[in-house]
Specification:
The protein has 187 residues and is α+β, with helices and mostly antiparallel strands. It is built from six helices and five strands; from the N terminus they run ααααββαββαβ.
Length: 187
């Protein structure tokens, strides 16, 4: 999860948690006649609560709360659904005279194309993502378990090393995952 969605989720959970704790403690204290909260509950005038519930402004307060909750929820969903791709990568050697940049998505595409041509892999996926501020080139390969891990890792290591050499000194991490899946049974 990226920084923005993580922050929104933490704020949401913290806010909901604080409200639930305050309401829960208020209910517990009111039931056991403990301390000031119990006296506060007894001072509430039931007629005033009934009049407020019947008032016309109460509907607009509820509409406002629902609108705020819907907007907050849409904001949370938007931060979670949005893809977090890395746009550009500044290469080592950039200075005040100019910047050398490359699109990590193109590197991912080249790695995916190269690995997809290899006979060991039944499926290959490579993506450049931004994960909590870290630029990562994530490579996921699927291979049947008929090949040894060392054999698969050797082929994968060549591609990883090529990427590391190409972007040496740049802030790009390479993450490789191997998924060993047996071939589907024929009917």
């Amino acid at each position: 999860m990226n920084r923005l969605p993580a922050a929104w989720n933490r704020i949401s959970v913290g806010l909901i948690g604080a409200v639930l704790i305050v309401v829960g403690l208020g209910l517990v204290f009111s039931q056991v006649d403990a301390g000031p909260p119990a006296r506060w509950v007894h001072r509430i005038d039931p007629d005033t609560v009934r009049e407020a519930a019947d008032a016309h402004w109460w509907t607009w307060v509820l509409v406002g709360i629902v609108a705020l909750a819907v907007l907050w929820g849409l904001r949370l969903l938007a931060t979670l659904v949005r893809p977090h791709a890395v746009d550009t990568l500044v290469l080592d050697g950039s200075d005040a005279g100019g910047r050398m940049t490359v699109a990590p998505g193109l590197i991912a595409q080249a790695v995916e194309t190269e690995l997809a041509e290899h006979r060991l892999f039944s499926d290959v996926s490579a993506k450049a993502i931004d994960d909590r501020g870290a630029k990562i080139l994530r490579i996921v390969v699927t291979a049947p378990p008929t090949h040894s891990y060392d054999e698969i890792a050797e082929v994968l290591a060549r591609s990883i090393e090529q990427v590391r050499e190409a972007v040496d000194g740049a802030d790009l991490h390479v993450q490789a995952m191997i998924d060993l899946v047996p071939p589907k049974a024929r009917r």
